[in-house]
Amino acid sequence: MSGVAAIAVGAAIGLIAVPAMGAAAPLTPAMRPVVRRHIAGLDGVFLRDLAGFREVHVFQRSNPDSASFFVGALVRGRWLPAHDPSARDGGAFSELTQAALRSRGWERATPSRRRALALAWLRVGLPSGETVEEDLDHPGHGPTVTTHGRSVTVTAWIDDRHETRSGLRTHIAEAPTSFRFGPDGWLEIDPG
Asked: Is 142 exposed, middle or buried, given 0-12, 13-18 or 19+ CB atoms closer than 10 A?
């Protein structure tokens, strides 16, 4: 998947090794016990670092015959669980999005910088296997980005591709999805 950098974090944490594909901030010694506590006993957990979001570490778990799924994330040393009953509506992905955008200065960003951050986040931050269609792949399906006050909306066609034991599973959306990033970075998704 383009834009995704994965790094190995070592056997001491119990993660499988994935070759480095980009520059990511390493897990510090202080982060390791936090990660160990949250992923203890889980098999097939790997770390996905997201290009351009150095302080975001996404932990996913492999499922051999379907998509990998989100276990949790570490953003600036704070653990964000996959299932947080105290999270606002929109769930863990919206909370992760908000934390990731804030780590890049979302709240102080100019409208043009917010548009760039929103699109960059969707290109690398979507769940594993999901990608934003680009005009080069399918003319007319490239993302559009608009600003409404301090909010940004990205409308994009999403491909969902997962390699499984039984082969590649592909689903291309029948309609574009709207991703609305609020003034505080909170994400609301309208599947179209």
From this structure: middle
**In sequence order, what E strands does 3-112 have?**
4-5, 45-50, 53-61, 69-75, 78-81
**DSSP string of 29-51, one letter each residue:** TTHHHHHHHHHTT-SSEEEEEET
- Cβ 189 vs Cβ 178: under 8 Å: yes
- State pLDDT tens for residues 37-50: 878 777 778 787 78
| 117-158 per-position pLDDT tens digit | 999 999 888 876 677 877 666 667 788 999 999 999 999 888
Q: What are phi and psi of 172, to 5 degrees?
A: -105, 130
Rounded to whole angstroms, the Cα distance separating 47 from 31 reads: 13
**Cα–Cα dist 49/58, whole Å:** 6
